[in-house]
Amino acid sequence: MSLPLLTSDLPGTGGSLKTVPEDFEVEEIPAYAPSGEGAHLYLWIEKKGRDTQEVARALARTLGIGERDVGYAGQKDRQAVTRQYFSVPAQSEPRLPAFSLPGVRVLSARRHGNKLKNGHLRGNRFRIRIRDPKRPEAAAPVLDRLSRVGVANFFGEQRFGRAEDNAELGRKLILGERLARAPNAYQRKLYLSAFQAQLFNRALAERVAQGTLGKALQGDVLRREDSGGLFVCTDPAADQPRVDGWEVSPAGPMFGPKMVRAAGDVLRFEESLLAEAGVTLEDFRRGRGETEGARRPYRIRLMDAQVKQEGTDLLLTFTLPKGSYATVVLAEVMKPGG
Which residues belong to the active site? Predict the structure, then answer.
């Protein structure tokens, strides 16, 4: 689906992305630094032209461990230069010098007490080059607005696969249908989460279209920015100043049986999304632990955004919280085709 923009009234820069991997740099901001002691080894790894799964598989092969023994906090792009932590059992450290994979470097290794798990990070820093922009002066006003009002927290297109069929495969799994090719555990999780993401994007697109991204609505589920705690809005007039001050934000549905439910018109709207997709909330029980349900903030803060011109190129730097997509920011800045 085509995603609505928060800066549709502002021109975009145009230009080209990812001409070479070095044009797109991502550095993970860890939730904590490894302590130096413990049963796990945290590897700070730089990779180029490799996805996270490739590195995890190569580590498992070289170290003689199972793929499930390799931990990481999040998936990173293939067509990029990225730096992130991986964790492996500490007893495999003697075999680490044998690890070799073109485009991948182990920058440091340090012990810690627990395995790295998905989501164990604070965010990501991005350094992105836009080559040959048509309107380089257009970037600053867009970034300024997004820094003030936030970024619509859409899932990026990479969530849905190259053929854009991940969500439909997930919907079939939710309905209990057999797929033409049985998915492995990783694929199953990917498909199910893509279907949840698709429904979330539809809900968020409506909020953007209605101009209510930064509004507290009666029946909204609001999320505390500091703790992630959730509560249902019963007094929009009282909660709106907290939304304006970025103390809380409206949170949309990642459908599942344990998801905190909205109320009133917001609940009815979310139920209509399920009906349009031909599923019920009860169907998500088929996803078991993969689709228990959650709430995802509709907006996120764009932090430390800067832009400068280098020759004929633009260099953008900014920070986003975990789980959000730089491609959403870039769509606002560049407005491809516009």
Answer: 77
